[in-house]
Amino acid sequence: MRSLARKHILELSAYRSARDEFEGVADVYLDANENPHDFAFNRYPDPYQSDLKQKISDLKDVGPEKIFLGNGSDEIIDLLIRSFCEPGQDAILTCKPGFSMYAFSAELNQVQNDEYLLSTTFNIELDSFLNKIQENHKLIFLCSPNNPTGNSIPMQTIQQICDTAKGLVVVDEAYIDFAEVESCLHEISNDNLVVLQTFSKSFGSAGIRLGMGFMHADLVKLLNAVKLPYNVSQITQGYALTLLSNYAKVKASVDNIKVEREFLKTALDQLDNVIKVHPSDANFFLVEFENAKKIYTYLMSNAVIVRDRSNVILCDNCLRITVGLPEENKKLISLIREFKA
Fold first, then answer.
1. Which of 2, 29, 103, 249 falls between 20 and 30 A from 204, CA-CA?
2. What letter does residue 18 receive in the DSSP assignment?
3. Which CATH number characterizes residue 189's domain?
4. Contact criterion met (CB below 8 Å) for 247 and 226
5. What's the domain count of the chain?
């Protein structure tokens, strides 16, 4: 799969920082022009996040050499497009409705984005999808569970897409910890499969901007050559290590969100002005209302913010509602009842 990368990228001489040239612990550091005084973060961070990758490896049961960490999954998405797609020549394939960052990164890199329209139930119809794949599709992005629809892609479908595609298949699993379906991580022995996960959702740490990419070790090496030298700060690495050392707290929060998800679905289903609550494996629901825009405005006027998705294809009159704390979910339901009254 490395051979699919742009010729320019394969020939790139990676930037080597001072920390690339020395591994281990020293008594005196005079190599990186740092301020020697003992501020909390006066030293550059580990450019390859070795300790953090080992902790993630232990949790996910994936070798650290197959892990790439980025400044959010957004950075990894951008690096993949930049590394594999020749501007004006190659293309990516995405699903709509879907996560908009894939299309944005493609446009930013002057790469064509071909879109596959999901069915009215937000599913991939395999034969038509496989027929959509072209030779110049260097990357196929699949979001599972999908944003904004919340449904997952069956593993068998993903496997068949991997078997057919000539390029990389990138499965974005930002919401996988809220799902009952299995992750694709055990499938990364497929050379052309890349799995993305994040600390932003189940880990409750959107503010630290940490994305995880799981892929063949050769692809990790390629992205390491392209990324900025210190793309993950020491603050982020340290906080992530603390989270991983207290994973029971993370797991408890996920379990709580799953309980609240059931409450919220039941409560929304009982509202007269709700047409449909679409099934969700994520920590949100796509909800079709009789008049979504008016409800959105009413909620906002009462300091409750949801996401209006009614301008997205196949999502007419739909709001995307995140599962909140118990008191937040109850306030939401109460306001929607008041609006109807």
1. 103
2. G
3. 3.40.640.10
4. no
5. 2
Query: Is residue 155 domain-shared with residue 52, that is, in the same domain?
Result: yes
216-234 confidence digits (pLDDT tens): 999 999 999 999 999 999 9
DSSP element (H, E) containing 337: helix 326-340
- What's the per-residue H, E or C state across 162-218? HHHCCCEEEEECCCHHHCCCCCCHHHCCCCCEEEEEECCCCCCCHHHCCEEEECCHH
- Residue pLDDT, tens place only, 286-302: 999 999 999 999 999 99
The string of DSSP codes covering 211-269 is: EEEE--HHHHHHHHHHS-TT-S-HHHHHHHHHHHHTHHHHHHHHHHHHHHHHHHHHHHH
Residue 45 contacts residue 237 (beta carbons within 8 Å)? yes
290: left (phi over 0), alpha (psi -120 to 50) or beta: alpha
Q: What is the pLDDT of residues 108-123, one digit of tens each?
A: 999 999 999 999 999 9
Last residue of some domain: 216, 245, 274? 245
**Alpha carbon distance 233, 256 (integer Å):** 30
Residues 69 and 108 in one domain: yes
- Can you give the CATH number for the domain in which 331 is found? 3.90.1150.10
The answer on 58 and 159 residing in a single domain is yes
Final residue of a structural domain among 199, 220, 245: 245
C-alpha to C-alpha distance for 219 and 21, rounded to whole angstroms = 22
Confidence of residue 341 (pLDDT cuts 50, 70, 90): low
Q: In which domain, by residue range, is 185 found?
A: 2-245
